[in-house]
Each structure stands twice: as C-alpha cells, then as structure tokens.
Specification:
By secondary structure, the chain is mainly α. The chain folds into two domains: about 230 residues, Rhopdopsin 7-helix transmembrane proteins (Up-down Bundle); about 110 residues, Herpes Virus-1 (2-Layer Sandwich), CATH 3.30.40. About 65% of the residues lie in helices and about 10% in strands. The protein contains 14 helices and six strands. The strands form three sheets. It has a two-stranded antiparallel ribbon. Helix 5 packs parallel to helix 7. The radius of gyration is 24 Å and the shape is elongated.
Length: about 350
C-alpha cells in the first residue's frame, strides 16, 4: 500500500465515521423536536461518495482484499442522488416560492434520480469502464459519464442554494441569517470538494480536498445546532436570538406575558393559521425555523421555546412540545422563566403532569 493509497483510504474512513456520528446526532435531535428536516439532514450527510473508499479500506486492512471495481463504482455514485433528493424535498417544504416552481424542481429531480440510478446500474453490470476506473481506495471517472451526471443536478442545486440563502437573509433574526449562510457554505464546500475529489492526483490534493469535505459536514451540523459561543462570536452583540427577534427587555416581558395566557382554538382556526403560515401565539408569519405539533398547531421558533420554558404544552392538544421534558400546568406562582440563558420573572403555572 502506497502513502497516497493510505491517505485516500484512511481519510475516507475518518469522513464516514464523522458523518455517521453527526447523522446519529441529527436523529436523536429529531426525537426531541419532531422535525422531519433533521432526518433528511442525517440522510444528506451520509449520502456521499466516500463510502466506497472507506469500505474498501476496511476490507483491505482486515480481510486482505479491496472492493471489486463494479461494486466500488456503484457505491461512489449510488448514494449522492438520494442526498440531492433529500435537499430538494427540504427546499420544497422550507422555502416559500411559487408552488409551480418548487413542484417543477422537485419532480424534475425525481425523474433525474430515477434515470441516473438506472443508467448507473446498467453500466456497472454491462461495462463498468464507461463509468470509471478504480485503484484500491480511489477512482477516476470518465467524462462521458460524469458530465451528464453533473449536468442533471448541478443547475437546480445551485438555483435552490441561492433561493434558500436569500430566504434566510430576509429574516430579521441574525441567527437565522447565519444559519442560512453556514448551511449554504457547507453544501457548496461539499458539492465542489466532492467533484474535485475525482481529480486529486497527489497526497496534498487528497489532504486538502478530504479536509474540506469533512469541514463541510461540521458546518452543516453547527448551522442547525449552533453552540452559544459560536452564536456570540458570529453575531458579536452577544444577545440571545430570542431577544433579537422581538426587541428590548421590556418587550421580552410583554411577550412572555402573552405566551403565558392560553386561549382555546377551534380546528378551523388551527387549519387557517397553518395555511397562512402564522404562529398561534404571536399571530406573526413564521420564518424558516418553526415548530409544528402532531395536531397541526403551528408555532414560530421563539414562541415554541418560550412555551417549553413556561408549560411545555401545545395550546391545542396539550401534548408536550419538547418530548424529553415534563409538562407544567395548574397553580399560579411567581416563576423565573429562563429563555436561552436569560431569566425573566412572571406569573406561571406549575404542577408536573408527566415525566
């Protein structure tokens, strides 16, 4: 095994392990927040071409043989269209553009995935050399295959990246703006570093390109679950995104008082608010990041976080908003409500219903 082959195989394995760990974190977060986008992100993170190099490296180290070229090439290209479809599905549900446009993008890519996967299987079975050549833990693709493959997805990927970025930048919340930037940076890094990986010729190329691919995955994770120190460093003002979105401290108190007063909703009202993309609590249009209860009740991100701290209960069906925390309800008492690290005193209800 040469030094270049060892770098190719070991870095592929490191990347696979990293994406599996990050993917599991997204899955665990799904059970906490019940947002299907987190499952899609877990699939996206693990839909990459380096599975082939990692598996081949492991089989060579422990079993003494590398994957055969047809299987290797199939693993390189089989998963990426699945990741693309997850992104387009997320885009379709998160970004509000004309439905005819978003549906056209979605269905075009469904057809593109079916065609590219079918052609890949056909070429791998009949003549894998049309797809590319394999050298242990790396491969060189052919122009006759890669150009149509990239052309099928690249224009729509770039278009949706731009639309998603613009959608996030329209928000007044600086955190959402930065989340949009980091997600797009991560996706662009991953897209072009994956394309460049097929043309890496020496050890330095491999190290640089594989490092960029690994960084792209961590950017996507940080974008969705931004640690407080990263948020403070990026926003600089060191104010909670909750306070940023609604103004000064007195407005925070007023807002929490509104959140603490429950009201009844008919099913028709719930459906109406959902169709208008409005939060049940503050009556404002929801942004990209929101909470949708199993009953269909829609809450903006800041109201959902406030409700979790006050009573952790959906106003419509009374089930917990955060499934990992108890519901608090009943007797009124003075309570310090903590929102993203800031404690605010107000009258709240307290009695644990479920744990």
């Amino acid at each position: 095994m040469t030094q270049l082959e060892f770098l190719q195989g070991s870095l592929a394995l490191v990347f696979v392990v990293a994406t599996v760990i990050l993917g599991l974190k997204f899955v665990f977060k799904y059970f906490q927040y019940r947002r299907f986008e987190l499952i899609l992100m877990a699939i996206m993170l693990n839909s990459h071409h380096l599975w082939a190099g990692a598996i081949s490296f492991v089989t060579y180290i422990f079993l003494g043989f590398a994957l055969s070229p047809p299987i290797y090439l199939f693993l390189v290209y089989a998963f990426m269209p699945i990741g693309f479809m997850c992104w387009f599905y997320m885009f379709y549900h998160l970004v509000k553009i004309k439905k005819i446009v978003s549906k056209t993008i979605l269905w075009y890519n469904v057809v593109a995935v079916v065609i590219t996967e079918s052609l890949l299987i056909y070429f791998v079975i009949t003549d894998y050399m049309i797809v590319g050549t394999v050298a242990k833990f790396d491969m060189q693709t052919t122009m006759i295959f890669i150009i149509p493959y990239i052309s099928a997805f690249l224009p729509f990927l770039l278009a949706t990246y731009i639309l998603f970025f613009r959608h996030c930048q329209k928000s007044e919340d600086q955190k959402i703006q930065w989340m949009g930037k980091l997600i797009i940076f991560g996706l662009v890094f991953r897209l072009f570093s994956s394309m460049g990986d097929a043309f890496a010729l020496n050890e330095i190329d491999v190290i640089i390109i594989r490092t960029l691919v690994i960084i792209s995955s961590f950017l996507l994770y940080i974008a969705w679950f931004m640690p407080k120190f990263v948020e403070d460093w990026l926003i600089k003002a060191k104010r909670e995104d909750f306070e940023n979105s609604i103004g000064k401290k007195d407005k925070v108190k007023d807002f929490l008082k509104i959140v603490s007063v429950r009201r009844e909703f008919t099913q028709g009202e719930v459906i109406s608010y959902r169709k208008q993309n409005k939060c049940l609590v503050c009556k404002q249009k929801t942004t990209l990041f929101k909470y949708i209860c199993d009953c269909g009740a829609l809450y903006c991100n800041r109201c959902a976080k406030a409700l979790i701290q006050i009573e952790n209960m959906c106003w419509v069906c009374n089930i917990p908003i955060d499934k990992l925390k108890p519901v608090i309800f009943n007797e009124m008492e003075e309570k310090g409500v903590k929102i993203d690290g800031k404690e605010i005193n107000l009258k709240s209800k307290k009695t644990i219903l479920n744990k």
